[in-house]
């Protein structure tokens, strides 16, 4: 497995990067490091990059305290262990595999520069990933919003389609009623036409009978004369 690598920065490159991270350290402290200067700087970096608060960093872990017969003798050592554990995790994530207590209590300029270079590189890497995540999150939010709008539009279209289907069904029922009434009227008219035709035939027959009777009466009058 290849080891994570990072560039070792020169002091004139490293200090501006630390300043950009709002880490307080000057060239003299970097070239002549001591426990008193390195410990606060590393604490500040741990708090900044891990999200652990200063209170959490210095607060004893009570389950660990219970393991000691005289826990009051370890009030300072256990918080110190908490700090070193968090710092070691950060160093490991930054690519430093050989970080030790000596780098805090007896810091050496080359190793300190190496460790701070690793932290700067990690911070930049994390910032790049954070920006990429923000961009992806923005894209995701846009897609979610678009999907929401699509769902709302689909719901509106579905409601409108159902309204039109109901209106069409109602119209179909009305058309069916009109067609039924029209069929009834057509049938009635047909029957009336048949009745009228029959009456006309009867009228013609009566007229013929009347004419025949009139002719017979006229003939009878002539004979009597």
What can you tell me about this protein's structure?
The chain has 225 residues and is mainly α. It has a domain of 122 residues: Ncd80 complex, Nuf2 subunit (Actin-binding Protein, T-fimbrin, domain 1, Orthogonal Bundle), CATH 1.10.418.60. The longest helix is centred in the C-terminal third of the chain and has 116 residues. GO terms for molecular function: protein-containing complex binding. It comes from Chlamydomonas leiostraca.
Write the layout of secondary structure elements.
Elements: H1 11-20, H2 27-31, H3 35-50, H4 54-58, H5 62-65, H6 77-94, H7 102-105, H8 109-224
The 3D shape can be described as rod-shaped
**What is the CATH superfamily classification of the domain at 11-132?**
Ncd80 complex, Nuf2 subunit
Computed over alpha carbons, the radius of gyration is 53 Å
- SSE order in H/E notation? HHHHHHHH
Organism: Chlamydomonas leiostraca
Main location: nucleus
Family: Belongs to the NUF2 family.
InterPro entries: Kinetochore_Nuf2_N (IPR005549), Nuf2_N_sf (IPR038275)
Structure keywords:
225 residues; mainly alpha; Actin-binding Protein, T-fimbrin, domain 1; 8 helices; Kinetochore_Nuf2_N; nucleus; Kinetochore protein Nuf2 N-terminal domain-containing protein; cell cycle; cell division
Brief sketch in words of this structure:
The chain is an all-alpha fold.
């Amino acid at each position: 497995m290849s080891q994570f690598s990072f560039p070792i920065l020169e002091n004139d490159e490293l200090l501006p990067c630390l300043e950009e991270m709002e880490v307080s350290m000057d060239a003299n402290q970097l070239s002549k490091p001591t426990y008193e200067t390195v410990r606060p700087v590393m604490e500040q970096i741990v708090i900044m990059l891990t999200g652990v608060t200063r209170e959490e960093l210095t607060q004893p872990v009570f389950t660990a305290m219970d393991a000691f017969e005289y826990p009051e003798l370890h009030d300072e050592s256990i918080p110190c262990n908490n700090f070193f554990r968090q710092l070691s995790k950060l160093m490991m994530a930054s690519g430093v595999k050989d970080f030790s207590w000596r780098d805090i209590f007896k810091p050496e300029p080359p190793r300190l520069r190496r460790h701070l270079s690793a932290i700067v590189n990690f911070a930049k890497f994390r910032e790049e990933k954070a920006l990429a995540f923000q961009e992806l999150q923005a894209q995701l939010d846009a897609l979610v919003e678009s999907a929401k709008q699509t769902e709302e539009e689909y719901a509106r279209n579905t409601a409108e389609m159902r309204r039109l289907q109901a209106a069409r069904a109602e119209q179909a029922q009305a058309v069916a009623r009109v067609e039924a009434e029209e069929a009834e009227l057509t049938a009635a008219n047909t029957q009336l036409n048949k009745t009228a035709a029959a009456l006309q035939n009867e009228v013609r027959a009566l007229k013929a009978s009347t004419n025949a009777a009139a002719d017979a009466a006229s003939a009878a009058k002539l004979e009597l004369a």
